[in-house]
Design brief:
Layout lengths: L6 E7 L4 H12 L6 E6 L13 E4 L2 H9 L6 E5 L4 E2 L4 H4 L7 E5 L8 H14 L2 E9 L4 H14 L10 H5 L3 H4 L3 E4 L6 E2 L5
Parallel strand pairs: 1-2, 1-4, 2-3, 6-8
Antiparallel strand pairs: 4-7, 5-9, 6-7
């Protein structure tokens, strides 16, 4: 049982991909049976679903994090991509929140060594966002709720042309370390967690 409780863990995805939520939650539940799991359906109001083994709600990943941070019964909110592969407990990753409120994962941990790689890789990350939103965790105390409220406001109320299409959510978070206290940045996901790179 994880010592990081209570934890609400969610993934956001289209309705037709609900099976991916089941797969990632089943993998996580092996190590974290005490967590609360929620699938956030982004494209439609989900029909009534019984016995899914987790909650199903309508929304998007940004506004749901803001909503979840306001729940007094939750200590940590974790967003994980439905394409993640989990083969070990996430306690080593969440341990970074022992002295922080916001946990971000870097998309890049070493500079590219040649010009072509800089053009094809580094510049794309510079334009689309520094942090990998396949995993994001915040405490519901300290700076966590402020970050979630600010992020929801910026994504929801301001033009998305700050980044290539589909990357505005990611790009806004580049400002987080300069705006909020209690931010910790992890350069590599721990063993047992494989994340898509371009999320």
């Amino acid at each position: 049982m994880s010592k990081f409780t209570p934890v609400l863990c969610y993934t956001a995805l289209p309705w037709e991909d609900l099976g991916k939520a089941a797969a990632v939650f089943d993998a996580l539940r092996r190590f974290h049976p005490d967590w609360r799991y929620v699938a956030v359906i982004e494209d439609t109001d989900p029909p009534a679903e019984k016995d899914a083994g987790f909650e199903i709600v309508a929304g998007d990943r940004v506004s749901f994090m803001h909503q979840a941070c306001r729940q007094a019964a939750v200590g940590i909110v974790v967003h994980i991509d439905s394409h993640a592969v989990v083969t070990a407990a996430l306690d080593p990753l969440l341990a970074h929140l022992e002295g922080a409120d916001i946990l971000l994962l870097a998309r890049m941990d070493t500079p590219s060594a040649d010009r072509q790689a800089v053009i094809e890789h580094d510049l794309q990350i510079a334009r689309s966002g520094t942090f990998n939103l396949a995993f994001l965790a915040v405490r519901t105390t300290g700076a966590g709720p402020a970050l979630a409220a600010w992020w929801a406001d910026r994504v929801g109320n301001y033009p998305a042309d700050i980044a290539p299409p589909g990357y505005a959510e990611q790009r806004w978070l580049d400002l987080a370390p300069g705006l909020f206290d209690g931010v910790t940045i992890v350069r590599q996901a721990p063993m047992g967690l494989e994340l898509p790179r371009d999320r």
